[in-house]
């Protein structure tokens, strides 16, 4: 037994007995079965999410004798997790409970899809107490916390979290297991609720978001994604944007370096000045110097007039040197001088030109390695590397993939003028499983293409390119054989038809051009049951 664990006698002597005596006797273990039984009962009666949640929260409070219980929903669109229902919190505390994935204990459970159990919550560095419910009352320091995800088809839809007086690890694990069971029972109902109440959920999140501190966290407006690694990027951008320090943006191709560069500029004191992009890889060797630093009239045969280079054009603003690792050694030497003295000469000129520019450079190359190989100047590397920011690859950003996909769907659907309501569950799984070598740029292209292909307002797995459907690359479990792919498409079409018909098999069969019996057989083969697709309040005649 750890020093934190209590015996019944300890508990009694400490006056905590009310909360859990019955749990030592095993009575509460029997009681909890009643909760499962009730949930199962109402699930078969087609009850709505509100009824289910009230049974769960009542059970947590009365049978399991918990101090606090919270059911949270994850709104992918706004990338926020908020309290849907709870006990043990005031209305005000409830309103403050809003998190981003990766943030605090709840955010971590949503990000990883794994439960978290903490014997003494106030000791946990991840515990944010955003609701501020822990400032009050005695026994707060004795509370254990556990949080389980509500997951369906690898998609985290929300969490059930609870606090109770700590007794011992075994009982805590048992409670968490029970809540995990409850979470998996109600997951289909939660998904239906989220689909059906998309607008309500969004409005609710937005209202809460407006009232919460989340609003105050810094995120450049056009950069999408709230994953932990991106929050670190935002924090760095926030720190350095207001200075004139040279910034080096590192990261694979397509991660959003240019977007971050523009965020740095537009949040800087020179935001009203020009933002000039110079793509060093696209500059032909012979013209690189003249493009960057300009030339005097007659400097070379085609120099018929004086030309201001990118540095002069950026004067009073920011120059963004993209792919800086591609510059030749002579051009690097000239760039070093600008960095040191903010002075250069135009090609063919002798007069020094002084500029006042903020320099942001970016590269997907390993500059330190290039220095070792002798292809990049060491002194220039140190001058550029004053404030490096590494933008993480998309595969390390968790649910940002879906947030970004949603964002691009909205953008391209509006551009093409085609209403797209949602991305199907199998398509979401494919997007989440893929390793995105081309990062956000690749995701953007994939979504643009799928918006063009999509029919009936839904992006399906088969609207995504074949590269996302190869098992070795995606890990989606689809093998390359024709039969397996046909099975995957069949599964998806049946799921969609059942969703659209609220679980009415007859109606779904008609949509699919099958008899009811044929569809029944196929549903058995895919282990699908119409109950999963029933919508609250509607009882289809099957
Ligand atoms: N977090 C993000 N939110 C929204 N759009 C993004 C995000 N990151 C990247 N994009 C979009 O993805 C595309 C590629 O981004 P960007 O050009 O900034 O990448 P990069 O790292 O500079 O690529 P490269 O190294 O190839 O120049 C752009 O259309 C950009 O708008």
Automatic annotation (TrEMBL):
One Pfam family named in its UniProt record: HTH_8
Protein keywords: Activator, ATP-binding, DNA-binding, Nucleotide-binding, Transcription, Transcription regulation, Two-component regulatory system
Record CDD domains: AAA
Domain called Sigma-54 factor interaction: residue spans: 223-452
GO biological process: phosphorelay signal transduction system; regulation of DNA-templated transcription
Family matches, as InterPro entries: AAA+_ATPase, AAA_lid_NorR, GAF, GAF-like_dom_sf, Homeodomain-like_sf, HTH_Fis, P-loop_NTPase, Sigma_54_int
GO MF terms held by the record: ATP binding; sequence-specific DNA binding
Protein name as it appears in the record: Sigma-54 dependent, Iron nitrogenase transcriptional regulator, AnfA
Lineage: Bacteria, Pseudomonadati, Pseudomonadota, Alphaproteobacteria, Hyphomicrobiales
């Amino acid at each position: 037994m750890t020093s934190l664990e209590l015996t019944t006698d300890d508990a009694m002597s400490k006056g905590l007995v009310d909360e859990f005596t019955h749990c030592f006797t095993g009575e509460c273990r029997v009681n909890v079965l009643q909760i499962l039984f009730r949930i199962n009962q109402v699930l078969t009666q087609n009850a709505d999410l509100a009824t289910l949640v009230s049974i769960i929260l009542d059970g947590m409070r009365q049978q399991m004798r918990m101090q606090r219980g919270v059911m949270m929903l994850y709104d992918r669109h706004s990338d926020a997790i908020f309290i849907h229902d709870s006990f043990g919190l005031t209305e005000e505390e409830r309103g403050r409970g809003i998190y981003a994935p990766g943030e605090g204990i709840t955010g971590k459970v949503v990000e990883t899809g794994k439960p978290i159990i903490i014997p003494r919550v106030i000791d946990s560095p991840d515990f944010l107490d955003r609701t501020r419910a822990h400032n009050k009352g005695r026994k707060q320091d004795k509370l254990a916390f556990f949080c389980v995800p509500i997951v369906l088809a690898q998609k985290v839809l929300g969490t059930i979290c609870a606090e109770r007086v700590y007794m011992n690890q075994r009982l805590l694990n048992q409670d968490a297991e029970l809540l995990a069971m409850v979470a998996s029972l109600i997951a289909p109902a939660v998904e239906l609720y989220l689909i059906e109440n998309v607008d309500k959920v969004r409005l609710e999140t937005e209202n809460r978001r407006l009232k919460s501190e989340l609003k105050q966290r810094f995120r450049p407006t056009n950069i999408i994604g709230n994953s932990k690694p991106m929050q670190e990027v935002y924090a760095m951008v926030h720190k350095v944007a207001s200075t004139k320090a040279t910034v080096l943006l590192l990261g694979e191709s397509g991660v959003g370096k240019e977007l971050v560069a523009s965020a740095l500029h537009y949040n800087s004191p020179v935001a009203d000045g020009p933002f000039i992009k110079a793509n060093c890889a696209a500059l032909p060797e012979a013209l690189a110097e003249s493009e960057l630093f300009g030339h005097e009239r007659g400097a070379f045969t085609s120099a018929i007039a004086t030309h201001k280079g990118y540095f002069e054009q950026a004067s009073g603003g920011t120059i963004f040197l993209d792919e800086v690792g591609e510059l030749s050694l002579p051009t690097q030497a000239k760039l070093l001088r600008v960095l040191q003295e903010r002075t250069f000469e135009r090609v063919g000129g002798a007069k020094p030109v002084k500029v006042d520019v903020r320099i942001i450079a970016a590269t997907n190359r390993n500059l330190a390695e290039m220095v070792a190989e002798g292809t990049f100047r060491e002194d220039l590397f140190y001058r550029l590397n004053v404030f490096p920011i590494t933008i993480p690859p998309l595969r390390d950003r968790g649910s940002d993939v879906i947030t970004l996909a949603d964002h691009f769907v909205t953008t391209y659907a509006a551009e093409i003028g085609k209403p797209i309501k949602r991305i199907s569950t199998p398509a979401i799984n494919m997007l989440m499983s893929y390793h995105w070598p081309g990062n956000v740029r690749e995701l953007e292209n994939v979504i643009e293409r799928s918006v063009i292909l999509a029919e009936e307002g839904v992006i399906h797995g088969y609207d995504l390119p074949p590269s996302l459907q190869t098992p070795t690359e995606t890990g989606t479990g689809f093998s390359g054989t024709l039969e397996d792919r046909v099975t995957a498409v069949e599964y998806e079409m049946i799921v969609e038809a059942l969703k659209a018909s609220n679980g009415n098999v007859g109606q779904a069969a008609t949509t699919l051009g099958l008899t009811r019996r044929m569809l029944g057989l196929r549903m058995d083969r895919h282990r699908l049951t119409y109950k999963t697709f029933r919508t609250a309040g509607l009882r289809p005649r099957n």
